[in-house]
Queue: 4 jobs
Job 1
Amino acid sequence: MIIGIYDSGLGGLSVWRELRQRIGAQLVYFGDTAHLPYGDKSPGQLLEYFRASLAFFQSRGCHTVVVACNTTSSVVLPRVQHELLLPAMGMIEGAVEAVAAVGGQRIGVLATKATAASGVYQRALEEGLPGSQVFVEPAPRLVPLVEAGLVAGPEAEDALKQYLAPLLSQGIDSLLLGCTHYSFLAASIQKLLDGKVQVIDPAPAVARKVEAACSKAAPAGAGTEFWVSAQPEKFKATAELILGEELPLVQLHTWREENC
Ligand code: DGL
């Protein structure tokens, strides 16, 4: 079994690092860096990028794809889940399970503009955790910071303070990181929240769900192919910085927009 992992850029690596510990299947990571950030894109554009990426995953022999991107999971998957080239699993269910495990009642969510506008987390959390109240804050400055490797320091703190303030004023008891890029800001977020709010990274819960769905996915020890649609050297260097480990070669895959 070969499993694809999809995101706009570096964010999906937060799911990848959980997944590779749990399953031995060959993994193919694709970051659509030519179209970053996804949070500013229209539903039509996001669907176009996703369809083109699925064709690429299929050409690499993938049997299924993990959509390690909350934006595509929120905006695209609910519309097209059953008419795709390959089966795809998104972030939302795992994220709701992760919040339920913590038992938060006043739940803050940081997300991209597109995810926030979709209303998906509002609905899924209020339905999955009856009686809870959900406050979603769009945080468009955060993805560019992570893509620049600025996951700690004054720029990150300044942006985080801006987005956390309205959530804290609502008295939140838990905070869902509703964009896979934000996992890499978790330490900075925790520092600012000073233990007062439970920070929830959905990546481990999503990886557990993939593991459960792909239980026959051995053999162990298979590696990962890394691909991006622009600037592979930059992706590799920043990924190594935020992961704290070396990655193998990152390859370039591009497509012509009009063929999407
Ligand atoms: N990491 C993605 C997400 O979880 C996409 C972020 C972006 O490119 O704006 O939403």
Job 2
Amino acid sequence: MPLVSLIDMYKPANEQHYAIGQFNVNNLEFIQATLEAAEEMKSPIILAASTSAIKYAGFDYLVNIVRTGASKMTAPVALHLDHGATIDDAKKCIDGGFTSVMIDASHESFEENIRITKEVVKMAHPKNIAVEAELGRLGGIEDNVSVSEKEAILTDPDQAVEFVKQTGCDALAVAVGTSHGAYKFKGEARLAFDRIEIIKKRVKIPLVLHGASGVGQELLDKAQKYGAKLPGAKGVPDEAYKRAIALGINKINIDTDLRLSWIGAVREIIATKPEEFDPRKVLGPAREAVKKVVMGKMKLFDSAGKG
Ligand code: G3H
Ligand code: 13P
Ligand code: ZN
């Protein structure tokens, strides 16, 4: 079927308390892996492209490969701009076939974040395209941070209420202790679940968990067995997804876990089959590894069977 608006996907997820996975894609194999996983799991899926992914793959290539894949599927697929930095980034995607955009002006002042997000909502909503915005600063909450330091990082509930009211955004990315990449926590994994609960009770709209990769031991072991160097890598434990979803998270962003599974599979082939030089024999198993991770997340997020 054609690409689906994330506005329409959010509604049942919010009502039935599950999360739709956002999976970042850069190339043909990642798009195939993620879409095959969705179809097999009968799960809705969000394919996301960052501005650097768009630059890498080319806007038209990316949109058209995703469209082609989705057209053959029964599970619903949304195409989302991840961390759009400017109104122009968002406009290009709104005009070019995306069904959801993120405008990330979280580094600006509160007022400027509202102004920029409002502009994007004004462009997107007449086309039924969803808008995600971000409030707060993604980053770990270490044991020794003071209350004021913690408050400077986490999303402020009063601001969240005001922000959603003024902008009319469809989903809000909240800072609750996670961060992007493979090194999320120095000590124990620590998420501010209470903050998710308080914000959700007050804003009601879907909340988004960024920096949510699990960086699981199995992925690390395989990549490191074949030469990857990832000392101290740590992610979000599986149990945390369930709890975060129960409290109001309806979209969970995964990029790093896909990258880790991909590099583990590529490294394995290169290390164990030095005679191999057919790219399909390297990228094929890597595509399978990515697909397996996506299927696992769909079960954990409880989106399996909802598509
Ligand atoms: O949130 C960031 C995503 O992991 C995308 O990263 O800009 O390297 O594509 P990227
Ligand atoms: P990870 O780096 O944890 O996969 O997070 C990805 C993300 O939040 C993309 O927006
Ligand atoms: Zn993110």
Job 3
Amino acid sequence: MMTEKKKVIIDTDPGIDDSLALMLAGKSNNLDILGVTIAAGNVENQQCTQNALDVLHLIERDDIPVYTGATKPLKREPINARETHGSNGIGNVELEHSKRQAKTGALEFLKTTLEQNPGTTLIALGPLTNIALLLEKYPEVKENIKELVLMGGTYKSHGNCSPVAEFNFWFDPDAAKYVFENLNKPITMTGLDVTRKALLTPNYAKLIKNFDTKLADTIYDMTQFYTDFHWDREGVLGCVINDPLAVAQVIDPSICTGINGNVEIITDGPAIGMSMVDTEGILNKEDNCYILTNCDHKRFFKLFMKTLFPEKEIEIDKILDNELYGN
Ligand code: RIB
Ligand code: CA
């Protein structure tokens, strides 16, 4: 029996892993993508927007509308992650440019679309600036949000911008704080605890390269810059593809498991951007988040690769089920 597609809106800052997440979402038969909204993050909003348009064009999903949104955090000075994602945000890979333009008015798109589509899932893959601005300007729309599944934060794993802070919450801690305190709908935090298990190893990258399609080559080329960054800066062999895991969790909520707790975002001082997770009720605060702590990474990569390359299902199972490759 065909299950009904989940209605989603994706808020993102493409970004190499955001681009892989858009590919996964755009090629999934399980998601009805109502639109994509852009927040500044990895690179400036204009570049993130162009990257989103070009990635959707690459996977022949020019039907998905793209809206520009926040160009800077609520309060902090803007930064970027060019050293991680390359000067153009997608590993310095030059994609064929989409001929269409993005639309302006992300907040109004979100408001109108949520009003018309109650029960929509928000997927946030970048800083939460757009989501915070939406809730502040149109608080009534939250009733139409089924849940927010985000990539961001960390529970027990070290940060990637400071010992305790992950980039999306570091970039705009005030937005993250506002969302966690005001959404009052289920939030699933796909943090570094689980995304660090979504490690695209050189083996996996080469497997994708061997599929020998334009999409395969693009993924391989995009992730080379990202892989070099991981080796140079973290001594990790491969690259952590954070954002596709959040999308995969929406497609199949059994891929990761977690624990309920209260998440509070620190907005100043040396721990700025920290997601302080209380799963023991120490602060006597209401649970406001489902914090993912375990991930079946093999199931994730099978879903990721089979969704992008359905014609390669046999090869994917053969390699990913072969313990010779350390899987
Ligand atoms: O910390 C990783 C997150 O920050 C990812 O979403 C990456 O794309 C950046 O936005
Ligand atoms: Ca991102």
Job 4
Amino acid sequence: MMQWETVIGLEVHVQLATRSKIFSGASTAFGAEPNTQACAVDLGLPGVLPVLNEAAVSMAVQFGLAVHAQIPEVSVFDRKNYFYPDLPKGYQTSQMYHPIVGPGEVEVSLEDGSTKPIRIHHAHLEEDAGKSLHEDFHGMTGIDLNRAGTPLLEIVSEPDMRNAKEAAAFLKAIHSIVTYLGISNGNMAEGSMRCDVNVSVRPQGQASLGTRAEVKNVNSFRFVERAIAFEVERQIELIEDGGKVIQETRLYDPERDETRSMRTKEEANDYRYFPCPDLLPVVLDQAYVEHLRGQLPELPAAKRERFERELGLSAYDAGVLSASRDMAEYFEEVKTVCGDAKQAANWVQGELSGALNRENLVITQSPVSARQLGELVSRVMDDTISGKAAKQVFQALWNGQGHSADDVIEAQGLKQVTDSGAIEAMIDQVIADSPAQVAQYCDAEPEKRGKMIGYFVGQVMKASRGTANPQQVNGLLKEKLDALL
Ligand code: ADP
Ligand code: MG
């Protein structure tokens, strides 16, 4: 049996969060009435001139700096010529030969907690096209040009990924970086981030790359993995049956979970790129680049590293908690309030994330604030409440019943009873009420008694409505029962 190696390269399109278009003052707001946000420049009407949006340049450079890329002094916009109804200009303004961001590298975190560097070939600025709406009109296609001229950063990786998990991890790393920088909302469902997946296979050990297929416009982390899995199997089967992979563009269909051919290389467009005569080359001076570098926030890789080194979190916890800036900020506040990183990590990833997932909320929508959760964790750590009662307090805060953990503990009488007199009274009552179990306990082999004590602990905890300190109950019970032997 031949052993195959998979090779993957990604082209990621990120919609930049500028308020206006890349070459015009029209708004980029999502969800407006069709064709209310496309101005003469976006349509390329005769006589208009594009003006480059400085915010788009700044965002592209920030991305470049975040992936340790070279930022060339000069970059140039080119026209990519093709005809399509959603592109009334007849060309897309893009950057072909002199992109704004040169070669760089991203550290991606894999599921086992390890990291792998993936090289970035380059990233370039371009404008988005409009949208064709096929569903809304019977026998016709609608064209909405609101999206025309929206700024995109296209990030092109080297073919450094070797399986679907690595590709998804790369996409997640890009997602973290652009959202940390605040240069994109990263909303994949709204198309703010989408990617083309290039996949090939080659016999293990072969140095040259196999022929690739490019799967266009995959818009979720899961679909990236699915599309790759399908492609790898299709290509290996094809070659093993004596066929050859042809270079082509394919489409992933999530409903059927398969990729289908769109066009082969022979049918590929010749875009006749040439420098856009309407736009000057972009020249960035060193001071401008250094100014942006000085303003970069702490990025996901640095945060992950700090969480491990400074806070002593596991590689896995550090990876999860640093993946989104909002999550990281929430976690750090919980940690500051309760003073314990490990406890804070457990609560954020456990109770809180579980509740968020159940109700399909993101962390910024959490009804329990980081301060509230931090205070709750403190009350477990100082033994005011048991772990079990803490879950009850969390639920109450989640439902808006009380402003703080202390309010809820007070209102619901959840304070742990550590007064041994009160606990002893409850124990005496339980022993008096359970003569049969007490007799069994006394008759049992000594090594079996440890297990049997559980019944009594349960009864006392029940009598205290969960407020008795379980360790204390255990200790006192053992003393009292053993005195009866
Ligand atoms: P093109 O110019 O035709 O778009 P590029 O050389 O720019 O092709 O590559 C586009 C993307 O495809 C890059 O992300 C690159 O890493 C990836 N790629 C190139 N060759 C292969 C291959 N044989 N297998 C997998 N990915 C590849
Ligand atoms: Mg390309």
